[in-house]
Amino acid sequence: MLQRLGHIWRLGIKELFSLRTDVVLLALIVYAFSFAVVMVSKGATTEVKNAAVAVVDEDQSTLSRRLSDSIRPPQFRPPVEIRLDELDAAMDAGSYTFVLVIPPNFERDVLRGDQPPIQLNVDATAMTYAGNGSAYLQSILTRELLAFRARQPASASLPINLVTHARFNPNLEPVWFMSVMQVINSITILAIILSGAAIIREREHGTLEHLLVMPLTPLEIMLAKVWAMGAVVVAATGLSLTLVVKGVLGVPLTGSLTLFLAGAVLYLFAATSLGILLATLARSMPQFAMLIIPVFIIMYMLSGTITPLESMPGWLQTIMQGSPSTHFVRFAQAVLYRGADLPIVWPDMLRVGGIGALYFTLALGRFRRMLQTANG
After folding, report:
1. Are 20 and 59 within one domain?
2. What's the pTM value of the predicted model, to 2 decimals?
3. How do 53-57 and 80-81 pair as beta strands?
4. Residue 195 φ then ψ, to 5°
5. What confidence tens digit (pLDDT) does each residue in 133-154 have?
6. Is 164 inside a domain boundary?
7. What would the pLDDT profile of 327-351 be if each residue is shown by its tens digit?
8. Per the domain annotation, does 281 fall within a domain?
9. Which of 133, 188, 215, 346 counts the highest number of beta carbons within 10 A?
10. Are 299 and 242 in contact (CB under 8 A)?
11. Mean pLDDT, to the nearest integer, of 105-118?
């Protein structure tokens, strides 16, 4: 037993030395856990900000100007007034995301107690952006219309005062969410790439045959690659959360970093096993790269990092239970955002470990057959 552990340890050290000489992979690790986290957190957002708005004011009344003036930064740019005959061309050209059309005699009809129509044209190319912006504009215009009819300030026009308390992210900062999710995405893609590339590199450099003549088993070779690549990603994750997410971006991580890294170890066991499994299916590094793209996209888009799992169709939710990223995302959000402890998150950790054991078993079977083919 001690001899096997020694083999696994020394093989893992060999993998770390091999990685040290691979400048491209080292640069990728540094980039993924530093610059990529900052750029995605600061740049990628679904919140409405600086949306382009135009107004077709055919009424030219006090009320129409009041409605136009109520559309303000930072959610919207100051509205640009255009003519009705310019509307279609402007929307086709993508010049404005929202175009508000105020019909003639609008103020007169409102004062008379009628319900005149007001048209909001939306460029729904960016669906989430357009949906959120439409809801904001509807709320703004409704508040101003109620205030105008009641001849009161807009703050006093509504019959109720709705007080909202946002927990875990009081200011609704998208950076708090995007930064941690980007770290999780980096863990996923690098764990798959590093472990799979280690197998492909052995095959392309001819060192796999050298391993076959040594008193080593496929299990020892696989475990060495799993712990070595997993250790690199765990270390990079801890540094990224501490130096980049908390230090540079100022995101308060309320949960236990130790508990999160413990869950990350289980997730890396699953992700590295998946990387080795994919590497046994590919014949070269380009094939491996093409193979991991659809796998990563599915794990990224459908695991809850972009939209909640509950918003997806039931059959898709069932399928995604077989992905370790689904349970790890839920685990990470509970620990880092809500400060959950072990009694709350242990079921997700158990699921990740169970899926990892399944992936490892499948990868080990494929790896043994690959070694037998290479030896034969």
Report:
1. no
2. 0.79
3. parallel
4. -70, -45
5. 888 898 888 888 888 877 655 5
6. no
7. 999 999 899 988 889 999 999 999 9
8. yes
9. 188
10. no
11. 87
